[in-house]
Amino acid sequence: MHDLKVAYLLNKTASHDNLLFFAKTKGITGVKNMPRKYISFIIIGLLVLFFSACEDSKPVMESQHLIRVGESVVTVDAFMRTLEMAKTAYPHNLMQNHEAYRAVQMRLLKQMTEELIIIERAKEIGITVTEKDLETKIAQIKGDYPDDEFEQALLEYAVSYKSWKKGLRTRMIMDKVIDAELKDGIKITPEDIATHYKKHYNSNDKAGADPLLAEKSSQKKNSELDREIITNIKSKKAEDAYVKWIEDLRRKHVININRTLWEEMTG
Questions:
Q1: Residue 35 backbone phi and psi in degrees, to 5
Q2: Is the separation of the CB atoms in 75 and 66 below 8 Å?
Q3: Burial of 169 per CB tally in 10 Å (0-12, 13-18, 19+)
């Protein structure tokens, strides 16, 4: 549950498929079998501070930036605010350990750097989100919350609606990049489907099948089950490809970490 809280903005922003994809590529556990709505209430605003903190480099003084990738930067203030929220995901006594605390800092630095790389990649390949698409997504999200629970969730995490909306747009752009570069070109063979079904859904295969999935599969139509299996296979193949993909992008971009500030923060 602790790792779950350091996930990205895991709410209705992305498909459940993409939600699981990002969680897995970041080493976040405990998401798969949890209801999406429960997840969203836990962490609706955790890293929206980061998404709303990705500034154009021009108005940010050189002495204030911690991470710079192309035109996108993360300031020291944004990093520290996000770190304070991330710390709540871990036991208090663990954060008193210098090595453990530094490991959390390093993990967050790596995650933020990767997000900036993806944002820059979106600019390179012309991926954007229109205001109409954004408003449609917002309406869908709000529609899943009864009464004023959505607004209460934002208040609970001290996240302004403007910042949340900006973070939502960024999340949607990143999802589109992932889909375009990792998912859309994935080829799935009949053998892939058969292997996945046997491993995860076949109740006769006692060694590997998930009993819960096997029971659910018996209640679904073949077409529905096929779509679910294809979605799962695509996510798994995208997860496998993510590490190489992000490392290739890392080599193509100039990444600047303000080492002076970083040493002051972690020393």
A1: -60, 140
A2: yes
A3: buried
Q: Where are the domains of the chain?
A: 3-185+253-266
Below-70 pLDDT ranges, the chain: 1-63, 157, 202-222
Query: What pLDDT is recorded for position 28?
Result: 47
What's the confidence (pLDDT) of residue 151?
A: 83
Backbone angles phi, psi at 56, to 5 degrees: -65, 140
Strands of the 72-75 sheet, one edge to the other: 55-56, 72-75, 65-69, 255-257
For the residues of 65-83, what is the DSSP string, one character each?
Answer: EEEEETTEEEEHHHHHHHH
CA neighbours within 13 Å on the CB side: how many for 27?
6
The structure's pTM equals: 0.72
Contact assessment for residue 87 and residue 95, using Cβ atoms and an 8 Å cutoff: yes
Which residues have C-beta within 8 Å of that of residue 69, sequence separation ≥ 6?
A: 113, 116, 117, 119, 120, 253, 254, 255, 256
Placement of tokens 């529905």 in the chain = 224
The DSSP 8-state label assigned to residue 35 in this structure reads: -
Handedness of CA 255, 259, 261, 265 (dihedral sign): positive
Cα distance between residue 72 and residue 57, in whole Å: 6
pLDDT given at position 216: 53
CATH fold of 3-185+253-266: Triger factor/SurA peptide-binding fold (1.10.4030)
